[in-house]
Each structure stands twice: as structure tokens, then as C-alpha cells.
Amino acid sequence: QVQLVESGGGSVQAGGSLRLTCTASGSSFSIMGMGWYRLAPKKPRELVARITSDGSTNYADSVKGRFTIAKDNAKNTVYLQMNNLKPEDTAVYYCNAGYTTADLRVHDHWGRGTQVTVSS
């Protein structure tokens, strides 16, 4: 079983920056892709950014040019650098990892979430 530990959320004013970090730990697993999703009140869960094992990325249109996702394969860690934050970015951000285990099964796992609050 893979564990995901998230950090880096907090409260900032509009225009500020935050960096989220998510580290996967466990045994005998291979990451296929990791990403960040967010859930805001009265809104559906939204993909923010995702990066695959080969480095391919995709972003929500609303964050393109402001957010950057990166990874450190050796540390099984993904980062989300969030710049020029806006009040509408306020949400709980969840890390997600898709991975395979030694038995070749595919798994999908979520972190507990970290709150990001942007004030105007």
C-alpha cells in the first residue's frame, strides 16, 4: 500500500505563491503518474495538473501560465508551484498517484488533502 503525504498548503493574499509537495512511500511500487486535484465548496472536483512518469504534463485551463507541476522520480515526489494565486484557487488540494505493484496490478490512491486559501 502506497502512502501519500502532502504539505505546503496555507493562506496567502491574491498574487502570492505557494508550493505543494506530495511524497509517495511504500514498497514494491512504480509510479505511472501523479497529480493534483482540488475541491472547492459547491464545485465538482477538478484536475489541476498532472505529470506522468515520462514527464508529460497537463493542466487545467484556469491555471495554465500560473501553476507548474514537477517531479523528482528518485524521491517519488511531485511538486505544484502555484504563482499569482487568485481567490478562485481557494480549495482543498488532493494529491493523486497512479501506480503499479509487483503483481502488475494498477492502483489509484489519494492523499488526505491540504487547504489552500487565497484572500482578495
Molecular structure report:
Helices cover 0% and strands 60% of the residues. The protein is mainly β and 120 residues long. Strands 2, 4, 5, 6, 9, 10 and 11 form a seven-stranded mixed β-sheet that branches. A hairpin with a 4-residue loop joins strand 5 and strand 6. It is elongated, with a radius of gyration of 14 Å. The model has no long low-confidence stretch (mean pLDDT 95).
Brief descriptors of the model:
120 residues; mainly beta
Average of pLDDT: 95
- Name the poorly predicted regions: none
Residue fraction in strands: over 45%
Q: Helical region count?
A: 0
Write the layout of secondary structure elements.
Layout: E1 3-7, E2 10-13, E3 18-25, E4 29-39, E5 46-52, E6 57-59, E7 67-72, E8 77-82, E9 91-101, E10 106-110, E11 114-119
Parallel strand pairs: 2-11
Antiparallel strand pairs: 1-3, 3-8, 4-5, 4-9, 5-6, 7-8, 9-10, 9-11
